[in-house]
Design a protein that fits this description.
- It is built from three helices and no strands.
- It is mainly alpha-helical.
- The protein has a domain of about 40 residues.
- The longest helix has 15 residues.
- It is globular and about 40 Å long.
Length: about 70
């Protein structure tokens, strides 16, 4: 079996596909990831910076891109 790799989802994105990619990687519903990330933005404020960094660092899935 191959190793899992983290990619942003190009076909299932709202803002960059980071949450959809994380949901796929951790085998969790993407809506739950989006809710947790939204709470991090609202409560702590650090969530926005973390999302932007993840958007830059995590590569987009080239196999499913348009």
């Amino acid at each position: 079996m191959g190793t899992k790799k983290l990619y942003r989802k190009s076909n299932d994105q709202v803002f960059g596909g980071v949450c959809a990619g994380l949901g796929d990687y951790f085998n969790v519903d993407k809506v739950i990831i989006r809710l947790i990330w939204s709470l991090a933005v609202i409560v702590g404020g650090i969530g926005l910076l973390a999302y932007l960094i993840a958007w830059i660092i995590i590569p987009i899935d080239s196999a499913q891109s348009y």
